[in-house]
Amino acid sequence: MDILYASGHATAAEIQHSLPDAPSYSATRALIRVLEEKGHVRHEEQGPRYVFRPALGRDKAKKSALKHLLRTFFEGSPEQAVATLLDISAAQLKDEDFDRLSALIDKARKEGK
User: Fold this and answer.
1) Alpha-carbon distance 18 to 98, whole Å?
2) Using CA atoms, how far apart are residues 50 and 84, in angstroms rounded to an integer?
3) Which pLDDT score, from 0 to 100, does residue 95 have?
4) Which residues of 89-110 are buried (b: 16+ CB within 10 A; e: fewer)?
5) For residue 64, what pLDDT is reported?
6) How far apart are CA 45 and CA 43, in angstroms?
7) Residues whose CB falls within 8 Å of the CB of residue 101, separated by 6 or more in sequence, listed in order
8) Three-state SS at 24
9) What is the pLDDT of residues 62-90, one digit of tens each?
10) CA 42 to chain centre
11) CA distance 112 to 49
12) Spatial distance between the Cα atoms of 111 and 19, rounded to a whole number of angstroms
């Protein structure tokens, strides 16, 4: 998906060549087929080739993936997810980062009421 989001579109061969430790062409096609069946990828025919594109915009896909992550690992709790993120990355955050996070929390609190 990263390859498709970065380029906007790609053929199966282009995707295969962009993958680290690239699998075979048929394995790449199988992976793309699964992504297409799940609704993450769509294709257009351009001559004899299929050109693949993300089915959703990156922001919409991010939100969908995050909702799935919350349900799967955090019992649907944003608080648990944020606590885990802070636990593993607090040492890397700067004061400005904490200020921005606080501002986002304040904004969400006001909009939620």
Assistant:
1) 36
2) 41
3) 92
4) eeeeeeeeeeeeeeeeeeeeee
5) 87
6) 7
7) 93
8) coil
9) 898 899 999 999 999 999 999 999 999 98
10) 16
11) 48
12) 42
Rounded CA separation 28/63 (Å): 26
> Residue 112: pLDDT above 90?
no
Q: Where in the chain is the domain with CATH 1.10.10.10?
A: 2-54
In this structure, whether the domain defined by 2-54 belongs to CATH 3.40.50.2300 is answered with no
CA 68 to chain centre: 11
* Matching residue, tokens 């050109």: 51
pLDDT tens for each residue of 30-60 = 999 999 999 999 999 999 999 999 999 999 9
**Amino acid of residue 1:** M
d(CA 59, CA 50): 25
Residue 8, both tokens = 């906007």
